[in-house]
Write a structure and sequence with these properties.
The complex is a heterodimer of chains A (about 350) and B (about 240). Chain A has about 350 residues and is of the alpha/beta class. Helices cover about 40% and strands about 10% of the residues of chain A. Chain A is built from 13 helices and 11 strands. Chain A has a 6-stranded parallel β-sheet with strand order 6-7-8-9-10-11. In chain A, strands 3-4-5 form a 3-stranded parallel β-sheet. The longest helix of chain B has 30 residues. Chain B contains 8 helices and 5 strands. Classes of the chains: A alpha/beta (about 350), B mainly alpha (about 240).
Amino acid sequence: MYERGGEKYFVVDEHTHFWDASPENWVKGQEQYAKGWIECFHAYMGLGPPETHWPLEKFMKYSAEDYERDVFEQGHADAAILQSTYLRSWYTTGFNTTEKNAGLMERNRDRVIVNGRFDPREGEAGLKQLEEDAKRYNLKGVKVYTAEWYNGSRGWSLSDPEAQVFLDKCQELGIKNVHAHKGPTIWPLDKDAFDIKDVDIAATRNPELNFIIEHVGLPRIDDFCFMATQEPNVYAGLAVVIGGLMHARPRFFNRVMGELLFWVGEDKMLFGSDYGIWEPKWQVEGFIDWTMPGTEEYSDYPAVTTATKKKIMGLNAAALYDIPVPEELRLRDETPAAREDAQLVESG
Amino acid sequence: MTATTASVLDALAEVYDPELDEPITGLGFVASCEVSPEGDVAVALRLPTPQCAPNFAFLMAADAREVVRRLPEVRDITIRLEDHYTGEEINTALGRGDGFTGAFPGETADDELASLRELFLRKALVGRQSRLIEELFRRGAKLDEVAGLTVSDLPDVRDAQRCVELRRRLGLTADPDAPAFVLPSGEPVLAGELRRWLRTARLVRMSLEVNGGICRSLLRAHRGVEVDDPEEVVLG
């Protein structure tokens, strides 16, 4: 919980990691990819305030204690969701596995939620694993990372028939939140690899599932907004928007938030810090203090209210994950955000 | 006259990042450029991260080769993409003068990446037109006047010139009496549609500019490269 200016905010950090990218975990012969990957992540940390930067060595592998302090004690989170990304082509025991995440959940039963993952290219074995993970970790969500390399393949698509089998399985297992992450990516080689059309198709086919698009489809925010306007079950994950822009590019941050509020609406936007790419503390505190400037440039974006911030900071994610919110932290007046304007505007 | 570093850099300024619609020179993607007394040119390109999309990386490297090739008195040309996950494949193909399928045999059928290029030329046109209209508003134009303008009415600014270039590349007319603002299909933006169209165009523009901003931020954080970036607005 974060208290500021007499208001209390329930904080759910919907996008956090607990990875091991240390050199001991690099796959032999694939070191350049394993090293390149984590160095690229580390560069993103450079977009946050300098006093929050870590040396690369710590960034490659941080401890459970680091996580608990940064996310909960200093980062104000009431609950945090750990996302799983395997990347076993590059990291021997996986980059950020469900199993490793579950270790953190064991220590923090009341406040850590672990999301699983699936990869349709793993076929029957993958389905069985998803089923086991769902039961063992009580999964309510999965992260899908379509750019992952696997057995010579450089990626997959959520609209593949093989992927639908897994989405059906998610429904059967009570997994209702699918966090889709596009890029940094490679495949498909001759098309726009960041294209989110496959999420659009999957969201239409699976109206019972929620699709949270991480980092709002960056670098395709425009395509994402056009899609989210039309698909009631598509949500915006704000990881990278807050971490990557609020400090480094404040004017872009205003514009991105304005467009997201207009096209997607405050009921479908979720705060995620992307820890350990960035520490949550400065993001939570900065976002609560942030105001849309009153100048002409931003004049026709929707108003940003305390309720807007409460929803984005935690209440929206709490609803998706059935996280109980103390009475005093709920909104008194539940009025949905108006999105009629956006619905009138067609894509193109 | 032999090519010089300056003339090669001038030529490279005509190479645009297709995804951002900005010259690679302004984005800081040219890591080095050397010209020998005999006219051998060696250009190294460096993108913000090793994971930047290989297709766009290939297009920029191939376009760089093409603009240098057109210069007089150039002998050998070596274009190298540095520190990239598919750099080896791309550099080998470029060295052989191969297209995209030569770089990734069996993984792609589109040698020229034509549809990818076209998709982003369309986005660029939408984004540039949005910026141009805002410039017109700043100069006092009213919404209902803008829809009636023709290409010849446009001010002599870079965005207007680029819109004409983009239209020609897309096979759309850009004659002086053609409508100033068009949909990616080439149809004019009608007066009654303009307000709504602007709303979507502004989003496309924001997306392109924010991506350019993130590229610059990463180049600075990852590679220590400082690039021009006044007021977070894309220029050039």
